[in-house]
Amino acid sequence: RVIYLVRDPRDVVVSHFHQITKRAENPFVFKSISSFLCDEIIGFNRIIYYYNLWFNNKNIPKEFLLVKYEDLISNGVYELKRISEFLCLDISSEKIRFIYKASTANKMRDKELKGELRSSNFFGNEKDHLKVRKASIGSYKEELSKSDIVYCNTKLRELNKYFNYVK
Predict the structure, then answer these.
(1) Greater pLDDT, 137 or 64
(2) How far apart are CA 75 and CA 89, in angstroms?
(3) How far apart, in whole angstroms, are the C-alpha atoms of residue 167 and residue 161?
(4) CA-to-CA distance for 74 and 71, rounded, in angstroms?
(5) Rg of the chain over CA atoms, in angstroms?
(6) What pTM was estimated for this model as a whole?
């Protein structure tokens, strides 16, 4: 069984930029987020390629469940219930609601700042250095230039419509 969690590739690329430039022991250096975005090896193309690769191979596992980050944010209790059913777990709706409320981005961020997240290195208190950074939908609009967004939207046409991120 495979649970494949996806997120809008434009948000992914921004998050990935912060991950490799601020939350790494040996951070990458780019002139700008724009130069990272256009990098042929680790930039935006990589995300599109990876999503399409999974789409093309989603029938290989016995069972495949697509979960979208945006759905977890907007309707998390339902999505967690769907995941638990996919895994054949018998978890009450009450317990799922408890788990969801206990795992909000704000609570996770607070735990990170207190050093309570296991297997998470600490790279500083600045928001862009945190693993639990913004945890929002569409924040790429705040961090990418208009030309970067046009670039991403053009490349996004190469993403399989199955993921429903193509506008």
Answers:
(1) 64
(2) 19
(3) 9
(4) 5
(5) 17
(6) 0.83
Where is 67: in which H helix or E strand?
Answer: strand 64-68
CB within 8 Å of 158: residues ≥ 6 apart: 48, 52
- The answer to whether residue 75 scores a pLDDT higher than 80 is yes
Query: What does the angle CA 31 – CA 36 – CA 40 come to, to the nearest 5 degrees?
Result: 130
Q: In this structure, what token pair is assigned to residue 5?
A: 């969690």
Distance from C-alpha of 95 to C-alpha of 75, rounded to nearest angstrom: 16
Residue carrying structure tokens 């996770």: 108
165 CA to centre of own chain: 13
Distance CA 107, CA 86 (A): 26
Amino acid (1-letter code) at residue 117 = L
Residue type, 23: R
Contacts of 163 (CB under 8 A, 6+ apart): 6, 51, 55, 66, 68
